[in-house]
Structure formats: C-alpha cells, structure tokens
Amino acid sequence: MTRHRLAPAFAALLLTGTALLGACSNPAATTDSSSSSGSASTERWPDATVPLNGTTLKIWAAQTSNKIPTKVIEDFEKATGGKVEVVTVPDNYESNVQTKIATGERPDLLFWQPVRSTLAGFVAQDLLQDLEGAPWVDDYADGIADAGGTYDGKRYAALISSPDV
To answer: Which terminal Cβ of the chain has fewer Cβ within 10 Å, N or C?
Structure first.
C-alpha cells in the first residue's frame, strides 16, 4: 500500500480537528461494483481505522498551525497503527509550499486556503485528490460544504474550521 492511498482514512479522522486538508492523488479509490459510472460518488472510501502499520503520512503545516492536529494525529495513530509526520513549512508558508511543490516535494496532506483562487494552481498541476463523494461531506451543516474547498464543481478540501481571511 502506498501512503497516498491512506490519506482519505487520515482525512476522515482529521475532520474532528481544526485544520484544512487537501490530499494528493487517490489510486486506492475504486468504483462500486453495482455502478458502472465510475463517478466519485460511487467510490468506496477506506474505513477510518483500517490497519496502517508501517505506513507514514506526511502533513505540511505552517508555524502557526503545526500543533493544531496533535490530538487527531494521536487518535489516528492509535486507531490504525500508522504514523503521521508533521512537517513545519516556514513562513511565508504559501510561497514556501509553492516552491517545495515546484521542486518536486509532495505531502500526503496539507493545510491550505480552500478558496477557488488558491486551489487553482494545484488543480492545474493535477496535484489534488477529488474528495467528491467522501462520506463526511454529508455531515456538514447546511451551507458549509458550499463555503469553499471546491474548484470547477469538484471538492478538493475538507473544511474543518473557518478559513483565515
């Protein structure tokens, strides 16, 4: 199993935290055998407690947000046996993330602004996982899912708390 296949399971647990996450590709997603459409809504998502022993996921965070996911990471590691490495990207976070991506570095998850303009560059480079059909999207309070995290009709971010403005 590659670590990118595991990002959705971690994202499901991280939803209880206060972070904004976007994930890389999702080669683990498969279509439901009862549907031939292959749409994202028919993808099966891994259980949040699937065993991940020997797997390490990397999450990028800013200096001001690197402690936010601590409790969720502890719970995730306990539930799955997987590990999470928080990489603190120095300020100016946004510029440094773009530089790291341009040089070929990739996290499994990252904190990011979920507005259209900040997602556009990642989408253009095919760097984000389409999260449409994720089981937690239906749990948003009315209107929250529409507040951000989408680009051209596809969901790329989990809105956990109010985004910084």
So the answer is: C
φ, ψ for residue 88, nearest 5 deg:
-85, 115
Residue 9 parent element (H or E): helix 7-14
**Ramachandran angles phi, psi of 32, nearest 5°:** -65, 135
Can you spell out the DSSP letters for 87-112? EEEPSSHHHHHHHHHHTT---SEE--
d(CA 149, CA 159): 7
Query: pLDDT averaged over consecutive 10-residue blocks of the chain (165 residues)?
Result: 47 37 36 36 70 95 91 93 96 93 92 83 87 82 80 84 58
Question: Cα angle vertex 119, ends 116, 125, to 5°?
Answer: 135
pTM: 0.69
CA 29 to chain centre: 14
